[in-house]
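Box 3.1 A note on notation
Throughout this textbook, protein chains are presented in two layers. The first layer is the amino acid sequence; the second is a token string describing backbone geometry. Keep the layers aligned when reading.
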Amino acid sequence: MSDERMRQRTGSADRRTVERLVAAWLAETERHDPEAAGEARDGWEQDALSDRSAQDLATWVTARVTDTGFTEDEGPYVAGPVRITPADKDTVHAWLRARGHAV
């Protein structure tokens, strides 16, 4: 597979990860701060998150990592509405940085 084809495939997978997590973040934000959720949703739909929304998303995904890779003996399982791995967190952070946000 060519490098370009691999990048496209990785980009698609990354985009699906970001979309999945943004949907969960927006749903949670809507329950706690409808105004911030509205601003974030507008920015997401226009592919132009504000710096505040981008930072909120970065902080949220970091705090919500649910799949730590630890066994039961090594640490607790963190329950959440979606499965979020450390790699998912890194994907969201990289996606935000690629759009010019300081994360």
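The longest helix spans residues 3-32. The chain is about 65% helix and 0% strand.
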